[in-house]
Records
---
Amino acid sequence: MITYNEPIRTIKLDTPHTSYVLGVLDGGFLLNLYYGRRLPDDDLWSLSNRLPSASFSPSDPEYPHFSQDASPMEYPTNGRGDFRVSALSVRCADGNSVTDMRYVSHRVFPGKPDLPGLPHLYAADDSLCDTLEVTMRDPYTGVEAVLVYTVFNDCDAISKHVRLTNRGELPVKLERALSSCVDLPSMKYDLITLWGRHAKERQFERRPLAHGLQGIRSKRGSSSHNQNPFAALAETGATETTGEVYGFNLVYSGNFTLTAEVDHNATTRVVMGIEPTDFCWALAPGESFVTPEAVHVFSAEGLGGMSRVFHRCYGEHLIRGRWKTEKRPLLINSWEAAYFDFDTEKLISFAARAKELGIGMLVMDDGWFGKRNNDKSSLGDWFVNEDKLDLGRLIDTVHGMGLKFGIWYEPEMISPDSELYREHPDWCVHVPGRTPSIARHQYVLDVSREDVRENVFGQIRAVMGRYPIDYVKWDFNRNISEAASATLPAERQGEFFHRFVLGTYELQDRLIREFPDLLFENCSGGGGRFDPGMLYYSPQIWASDNTDPIERLNIQFGTSLCYPASSVGAHVSACTRTGYRTKGDVALWGTFGYELDPNKLSDGDREIVKEQIAEYHKYYDLIRGGDLFRLICPWDDPFVCAWSFVSRDKREALVTLVRTLRQEETLLHLKLQGLRPDAIYTVEETGEKYSGALLMYAGLEMTGNPWDDGESCKVHLIAE
Ligand code: DGJ
């Protein structure tokens, strides 16, 4: 719900449990007066009386008592007396970058507008959300900023983006055009972020805020393994279950910044959007630029509460298409089973064995196209390597067995040793006169160019149109350097990175529009592009090339800070760190599948795999539709790790524990969460009955269970 209080000029955005209050001051200054637990409507007037004074900070002479520098500015700009990190900086035709946005008008309407060309939250029908558009204008440059907010009435999330239009008469350049700013009147928060690298993505990190700047960013051309475009501010002392937490996530897959600045008044500003380094967008008169969308979540129920809001929000308002709700096939992927060493017969043998186990889909990974028998060639040559493969016979045979069939692509890349490169050497991302840098023997294909997109999509369409393919895995295996495009004029080269991301989005959009039944999975050397932008196109993303179940715990727990279990690509591999039970219990958290040669399984392991597949079906609805509770996080406890999925009606729960490091017997009374205190739950494995209250407050007795390094166990609870 969004309400405007005319006498005091406040606009209040309410979700079920949160409020976000804007205030319009004389002079058109737009303030972020409050964000937190839901407030009543009656005494909002007092919020604008709380602005600290500022000495030394310049003010508009017409409003000498108002200081932008000391106020919670809703969309702070550069050069007019607010010296903190800004959201917008416009270089005008005179060459200066002074920018000043003042309120002009606003309107409220039901539903949510699309962001053309960009991923975004959506609502299935207009009654589920309301949108506020606040129009602001810089009187000097004529640049208009329309701040667009949507509040959902089924989850505590608020989305924001900004539409910038040059309504002046001269060209300008956007040097910073961020999506969102939140100013909080305290610095007593910890900043939580997810750092990583290849095979070690989304590692939880928590640090107290300090005065000055702190934050994360990517300049790699993609959201990256190294920092995820997510951050939380957790009030000091907040835990998984208690305390106020703000979550911020950018619906974007390219360069991003997420910066917190604490000022001399101990207030905290958080801004997020496209990383300004290497960004510059020219706006001729009449032209517009739309920022990516930012998602904000507030929870007074700790980090767990915040995560569950993100999960519901993304499950309902971000993930789309047939596979949002339809049961997804359980897959086996050829990569770790064969790498590049496969042919038709080998893949048929995988499928035959997989079928006996109960697996529903075979995915043929890298190595089926051009002359690709290792990673040194053929990206860009998206036609079947007929020396290696009879794709028609393979798919017919696999389909004949009752299995679905999937294929791998890496459309944004080009190998120097490829027909495509020999024909179009200028199609790789490069700066003329400089040697393009190479990574994994490949260059990046310039998908900011329409002709390049036409070619690569034409090749994809030729294969997908000819063969009945049920699934695509879309990979992206390097960072971008020498960022420039041969088709952009000099003054627009700063637009390259964003145009590249828009090109990728356009390609993915075409793929899922032309093949709407496709199950689509994103991937980037594991989870190097695990972000909400990608989730808008594909309902699942391969989380990491690291399939070691113990290391996966950190990756999956970190990922769960904001991404739902249904999106987390997780497979059982031949990794020997633990037995198959633990590997299965950990992979059950996510989409679940296999990444191994099924012919090489021992008889004992084959039986375990069959049981796992039965469990996958048994718990499918609970894990996809239930709420996740992180009971013991790997970053809090080196010995044991535990989580549960609880059905929305709280009648069923699946608890999983993994002993990450054996220790001499220490009591473990595992306190469950999210149950009904007064309900009686039966432990399926033993028949024991306990109240929800006992399970949550006294805990489930799990001392010594599981016992040894790398062992796991599950407890299934059903309420009467
Ligand atoms: C990286 C991916 O993460 C792997 O799963 C696999 O698809 C390889 N690329 C193939 O080159």
---
Amino acid sequence: MKKNYLLILSIFLFQTVYTQNALLIPDTINDTNINLALDYGTYEFFTGKVTNTMGANGNILGPTLILQQGDSINISVANQLSDTTTIHWHGMHVSAENDGGPHTVIPPATVWKPAFTVRDKAALYWYHPHLHEKTDLHVSKGIAGLIIVRDNEEAQLDLPRTYGVDDIPLVIQTKAFDADYQILAHSNSDSVVMVNATINPYVDLPAQVVRLRILNGSSQRVFNLGLSNNETFLQIASDGGLFSGPFETNRLQIAPGERAEILLNLNSRENDTVYLMSYASELPNGIYGATYPGTNTGMVLNAYNPNPMNGADFNILQINVKVSTTNPVTSIPTSLVSVNPIDESLANTTRTLTFSPETMGLDQLNGKFLINDASFDMDVINYTIPFENIEIWELTNRSAIAHPFHIHDVQFYILSRNGNVPPVNEQGRKDVVLVKAQETVRFITKFETFADDKVPYMYHCHMLPHEDAGMMGQFVVSSNPLSVESYNLNKPEVKIITTQNKGEIKIIAEEKISDIRIYNLQGKSVFPNIEYDINTALVKNLSPGISIVMLSINNQLVAKKVIIY
Ligand code: C2O
Ligand code: CU
Ligand code: CU
């Protein structure tokens, strides 16, 4: 172990000191018909050393898909691997069967053909494999690609958008290598940082306003981005959309799965060199990437330390400023797009999700980690969400390490972090949020457009070893939840009582209630206000008449008829 580490460290230092490599810019596919072929390959991360990889349409990573909102696209994903996998369109609002989650497998030598309309707002999304227990392996070996969505609103703005010239895709990843230069999955010793699969990269950028589209595609590591001279830059977008205006900062924390777009003002900076860095020394303990990954420094994460990147500042990308282009963007718009968060008062349901380690004690950082005391089960639907429901998800992290929580199908708006309004750059559209140790994050979202009783969507921690170990759950969005199979009518251990207040009922169960849905006799969802309190719940604002109450208790559905006064 120690010997491996020294070897890896010397690789790291050698590369840091001696070689600079031109940043690879992934090819693009700018078409409504998209063909992806997943296959094995080899790649020379280290001069003269052959590393076995996996890629889409090449040896490593995959082409950047450039999509236009409103377009109908047809994709063909050919699996030429000897392993089953899936491909998920992270952040995009597509139907469950097109989403590419762990149930939508692509066996070897088969082709998967999703087709959908691009409904998303202009932003940076990405695609990656999502096979249960093998997501980290397939992503770490190299399969991941960017998706740039354009829309009319963004097209109105004077922003850089010449791909690879003033609009630069950056897939930032750290990987762990063994002594034979082979990629290790499920490893906590990721000591090599790369951008677009390039170690020690440099890029020549024109002396004008330049846009960087950044994905943290790492399995686990959080970066604290900044520039080497500490100058400020402007964040203009989060995961799923542009902001209402640029947000000026000199630091940007980005967790696995998260994206950000930033503008650098390089006007009259020709011949300057500046580094994009991670100021990981400023990350508080309790985040993967800090000196200690847990808040309790006595907790040990296997093989995490020593590692030259933990809690240290390091370079990510060398930027050499060169001559400007012929039609440069030279100024930064002061306002961008309209952002329409959902008002908290519109929520029909609040769900509480608690993250905890399976075992307590100083070993707990090694997982597994549970959500509401459960590990992922392919056969259990954790929530049945009524179509068009507006929900608040309240995420509480009762573990000692931060988890980047991600949900499929939707973009959400963060309402609060520990009761406080989030910083401005977390008020836009998001699909990943880093929930710090002992923190509670609340977000609001709407489950619209797609309903499917059979194929679920996922929610999970985007630290891939955590996800693979079961820190994941699934939900279906149903427009006809009464047809969802296997519920027990009039299960005895649930009591429903009408309270003194008009239109109000109280539900008392013997076990934790994880979901309540109410329907009228026609089977149509009604959306009352529901306050959950573990095994009891108060349902308010029901209309008088007969209602059907469906409860999910301990993963079993229970249905009861009640008369509302
Ligand atoms: Cu980026 Cu469920 O994943
Ligand atoms: Cu996703
Ligand atoms: Cu996690």
